[in-house]
Amino acid sequence: MNKMPRTRWTEFAIESLIRVIGFSTVGFVILIFLFLLREGVPAFVQIDLGNLFGTRWYPTFGLFGTLPLILGSALITITAIVIALPLGVATAVFIREVAPNWAREVLKPMIEVLAGIPSVVLGFFGMTLVAPIVRETFGAPTGLVAFTGALILAYMSLPTIISVAEDALDAVPKAYRDAGLAMGATHWQTIWRVVVPAARSGIVTAVMLGMGRAIGETMAVMMVTGNAARLPLGLDALFRPVRTMTATIAAEMGEVAHGSVHYHALFAIGIILFLITFAINLAAASTMFRKRRRGGLR
Amino acid sequence: MRVAMRNRFLVQRLGFALLTLAALVVVLPILAVVITIFARGAAAINWEFLTAMPRDGMRAGGIFPAIVGTIVLTLGTAIVAIPLGVGGAIYLSEYARDTWLTRSIRLAIVNLAGIPSVVYGLFGLGLFVLLLGFGTSIVAGSLTLAIMTLPIIISTAEEALRAVPTEFRTVSASLGGTRWQGIRYIVLPQALPGIITGIILGLLRAAGETAPILFTVAAFYLPRLPRSPLDQTMALPYHLYVVSTQVPGMPPKIQFGTALVLLGLVLSLNIGATMIRSYFRRRRQW
């Protein structure tokens, strides 16, 4: 009789503790955003908006134009996705639909290895071995250009794109495939006209998550893109040095005085990054949740 | 009719060839990265490189303090991230009902996973380094890395817990066990291999990250071991960044050697996690 209440008390304590831990994740997201606001909002007050969204980023001269950085990030992210989307979806289709078992057994761990390689290692590889190839192939004066960054980013987003696209293909009911084949379509026609279109929404999610990954990537990009804060406009922008939002924060935060205008401006870039990735992930998550509520395609 | 037939299969062969090509284009560069770094880094690896302090502006000597720093940071991350991550996973899989609160937790996890690593660095700088006054220290760096690894640990651990059949919980309850007893003695042990895999995957991500430790803990050059949790430390990923971009006249041997040690550490953890997972998947009886 004496033991019962104690068990119930322990039970209650543990359950509350686990509940608190469960909710802490929400707390962390809010905390992160609040901190970015706390340190970044002064920038919007101290720097007038024309300057902050201007075209020149020269903090030593009080010029905090973030436009070149935003466009720099956009340029290499979009280029990376243009490279990674066809490669990633084709590889996912290959793994799910075409590959013999042995090839699948080789490919999947290899892609996991790629996902595990630290970005600084890929950046190092990019600057020592990929950049010279880019320089020679395209005749650019230096290999540390936007295109090299996009190439590395494409490979960094591939594991995400492939695994999410694979799940999407996996969720297409077998009956669809059987129906396609029964209609006399070839295996290829079934894949191309039935299975891939049915997995469309999942593939869109894959691309969004890959994009979120690419836009937030820091070290590899900082090491291979040359870091010139100039507007990436013009046809040759891909083969000129470029600088991203992430690289700017990483390169300059170590040297600024805490509390200075420059310091707040870097946090302001952090706010912009947070909002962009938040929007991308919200969109990706909402398509995932919608599917779950419908009970998937099955 | 026959020509159309043949055409269709020609198209199919072409299509499959393209898919195979895509897979090769994906895989070959991965092999190139791993093989080059192992081949060119191997020459630098010797006892001195692994156990000595850097000398001569890091252009000679070893990388011992960076190795120790990374191990210490990873352990620090583990201390914080494991209880929070596993606790969060238990909540989501065993306690949470499908309410808007639970959905907001899931949304928070997706978003935590998507926040750029450098933004974690900013957050760590603002909260742990400056506001809480830990300074650039192992504590600040570990806490920052721990929050970053949470989503990975929670989602893999939750998956492992969910894979344990409901009957196990029902049987425990039917024997008079409380919900927590069922979790503690039945569900957790069954899900343990999956949880450990998730923990390793999360920690190896932490071990390889540079951006979150840039302003929270990493020391450019500190040829001694950290003395307290409030000390700065060198770390392998940051050291690789430093030797490959910040110091002129750096011998490539040191760069590739550092890259190899970091890659080797991360890959062996990765392979370890995969092996644990497949070993227990084969052995489990449900």
Helix and strand layout, with pairings?
The complex is a heterodimer of chains A (298) and B (286).
Chain A (H helix, E strand, L loop, with lengths): L2 H44 L2 H4 L4 E2 L4 E2 L2 H32 L2 H16 L2 H20 L7 H25 L3 H9 L4 H12 L1 H17 L2 H6 L20 H8 L8 H33 L5
Antiparallel strand pairs in A: 1-2
Helix pairs in contact in A: 1-12, 3-6, 3-9, 4-6, 5-6, 6-9, 7-8, 9-12, 11-12
Chain B lengths: L1 H41 L4 H5 L2 E2 L4 E2 L2 H32 L4 H15 L2 H15 L6 H25 L3 H9 L4 H30 L2 H4 L21 H11 L5 H32 L3
Helix pairs in contact in B: 1-11, 3-6, 3-8, 4-6, 5-6, 6-8, 7-8, 8-11, 10-11
Uncertain spans of chain B: none
End-to-end C-alpha gap of chain B: 52 Å
Query: What's the helical proportion of residues of chain A?
Result: over 70%
Q: Evaluate the radius of gyration of chain A.
A: 24 Å
Structural class label of chain A: mainly alpha
SSE arrangement of chain B, N to C? HHEEHHHHHHHHH
Low-confidence stretches of chain A: 293-298
Give the amount of beta strand of chain A, in percent: under 5%
Round the mean pLDDT of chain A to the nearest integer and report it.
89
Q: What is the string of helix and strand elements of chain A?
A: HHEEHHHHHHHHHH
The best one-word shape of chain B is: globular
Walk across the major sheet of chain A and give the strand order: 1-2
Main beta-sheet strand count, sense and barrel state of chain B: 2 strands, antiparallel
Oligomeric state as shown:
heterodimer
Fraction of residues in helix of chain B: over 70%
Average predicted local confidence, pLDDT of chain B: 91
**Roughly what fraction of the amino acids of chain B lie in strands?**
under 5%
